[in-house]
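Sample intake sheet
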Amino acid sequence: MVSPAPHVSCLADLVRIAAARNPSATAIEHDHGSLSYAELVDGAQRLANALLARGLRAGDRVALFAHNRPEYLQSYLGLQLAGLVAVPANYRLTPPELSYLLDNSGARAVLLGEELLGHLDALRANGQRVPDLVVVYGAAGVHENTFARLVAAAPAGVPPRAFGLNDPAAIFYTSGTTGFPKGAVMSHAVILTRFSSWGWRYGITEEEVTLVPGPVFHQSFGSISLITLCVGGTVVLRREFSAERSLQDLQRFGVTWSFLVPTMLGDLVKAAAASGRTPELPRLRGLMSSGSRLQLSMIEGFEHCFPQARLADTYGWTESGWITYCRHEDILASDRSLGRASFGCEIAILDESGREMPRGESGVIHACNPVPFLGYHENPEATRAMRIGRWETGGDIGFIDERGFLHILDRKKDMIVSGGENIYPAEIERVLAEHPKILEVAVVGVPDEKWGESPRACVVPRDGQSLSIEEITGYCEGKIARYKYPRSLFTLDALPRNSMGKVLRRELREQFWNV
C-alpha cells in the first residue's frame, strides 16, 4: 500500500488550516493595529517564496533578531513553510554574542528590527561575518531589503515543499556551562507534538484570547503565541511588558489566558492591588507561570485580585520543554511541589549510574517525550552528556513523592534564573576573568526581591587592587547582554576549593541564601 503524503508536516500547516476555517478572524492584536488570519498566512507564504527565490534552500538557518512585532511570528511561520530553520536570537545580545550565534548556527540570512541594524555594522567593523541576506523589519526607504517590500513583491500561494517531519525546524540557543551557548535543534515533529500536547493540557481553543507581553524569541512566549494561532485564537502581542498596560489589555480585549514569568506576575498583582478595586475580568480563566518558584505572598495576592481565575505553574528546560504542570489547587498545597508530569511526558529520578530511583528518593530529574529533540547543533558530546537511553536531563536534583508530584531540591549545577531568564555563571566569568584588577572570580545567584535571584560576582582582587560594582558592570558593557550583568559584588581573599582545586560554588552560594 502506498502511504499518502502528509497533509500536515509543520506547525504552519495548522495555522493555515485555522485560517481557511475563518480567514477574517483576528489572528494578532498588536501595538499598531491587528492582523487577520488571511493576512497572517498570506504574508508567511509570500515570505517563504521570497526567501526560496533568493537562493535559500530547505535546511538553511535563518536568524530572527527583533523585538516583538507581528512580522516576527509571521516570519517564523514563513520559515517553516520554506523548510528553513529558525534561529531566534535574544534582542539584548551584544554584537560579540550575536556573532557567536550567527557563526555557530551557520545562518545564511538574518531578519532583524531596524533598531538593531547597528549590531551588524559593529560586526562588519570588526571583520566578523554577516549573513549575505539581511531583511529588515521597518526602515522604509532606507534599506533595500525590507520585510514589507520583500513580501509585497513575492508570489502568493503555498511554496514547494522539500522537507519532512523529522527535519530541523528551529534551533533554540541556551546558556552554556562552558561560557558559550549551545543550540538545541528541534524537528518539525518535536514542535508539532509538544505544542499540541501543551495546547491540550492548557485547554487552549479557538475562543482563546491570549495576552503575550513577553519576548517571543523566548521559547515559552513564542510557544504560547504559536499554540494559540494553531487553533485559531487571538494573540494580543505587546512589544514589551507593562503591568498597567497588561491590566488594560485584559479588560479591553477580553483576554482569557496568559503566560507570565514570576516577576511579571508579581508586578501585575501589585498593579491590580494598587488600583484599589478588583478588576472586572469575566473572561479571564487563568494565568500560567514558569521560571522560578512562586512566592506565597504572590499567590495570595493573585487570589485576592483575580478571584475568578486559576493559576498554574510549569517546570522544564529548553531541550525537553515544559515537563510538569501544577494546577491551582496543587500550588496551594503546603508541600509546594512542581506538579505532575505534563500530558504526553514521563519523568523519572535517576542516580549517577542511570538507575531509576524509587518514589521519595532523590537524584537527577529526567524526562522522556514522545519525540526527543535532535541534539545540540554540531555538539555531539554535549548531546551525549544530557541523555541516558530514552531519558533527557536538565541536571536539576529532585524527587517524586508517592502521589507522583515532582519536587526540586537543587537547581542545575550553577544556573541562575533571573526574571525568567537563564544565566550561566561561566558566561559572566569568562568576561570578568580578563579584568586587569581581578585575580579570580566566581559568579553565583543570590536572592533578589524583584527578579527572584540575580548574579553576584565573588572576586579575589589582585594585590593592592580594589573594585566596585560600577567598575564590574562597566567592564561588562558591550561584552555580554545587560540582563547578565552582576548586580552585586563580594570580595574575598580566596575562593573556596576542594582537594582537586575545583571552586566550591555551592559553598559560596549557600552563605548568601542561608541568612
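Comment: The longest strand covers residues 438-448. The domain at 416-513 is CATH 3.30.300.30 (GMP Synthetase; Chain A, domain 3).
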